[in-house]
Design a protein that fits this description.
- This protein has seven helices and no strands.
- The protein is an all-alpha fold.
- The chain has one domain.
- The radius of gyration is 21 Å and the shape is elongated.
- The model has no long low-confidence stretch (mean pLDDT 86).
Length: 183
Amino acid sequence: MAITQSILYVIQSIFCTGPAHLLCYSALLGTELYQSFVMTKICFLVLPRKPFIALQARVFPVYFRIQSLLLVLLAVTTPSHGLLSLIGRKSSWVPMLVSVGTAALNLFLYGPRTSRAMISVQQQGIAAADDQTELSEREPLNQEKAALRKKFSKNHAMSIHLNLISIIATLWYGWGLSIKLAT
């Protein structure tokens, strides 16, 4: 028992420190902002539709996993007692809970749904038809294609909104963290 407590104390001393926590927070916020507002925008502007869709289908599942991992690391590295310290302060755990909840929804529900719907839309040839014809020349969508587009749009919009809520909650947590640092 004494050995286990000693090991936990050493782990806590190394990982539940201010620098480790700030590094985790910085990595989380930087990853969220860069992927959401820089990389996606650049890829959308530069890549043709098919390669863009293929890239996003591979990048966003990885992004959601990294985001979730960084949120766990952020919670675990909370000074001075890790997760227990986080639970003790409502101003800290509420934004953290919001971030974890929205990231989990994107990781397990809306991210996969969006990817599957995006691939289905692409397989139906909707994306290719959009690239090759002007809006006025397109043939009307049949019901199946329209349903696929609607499914994609709904899931994609939900994923975007959840990601934005997660970013706002991360900023909210950072605001509280900076107040603690200033005092």
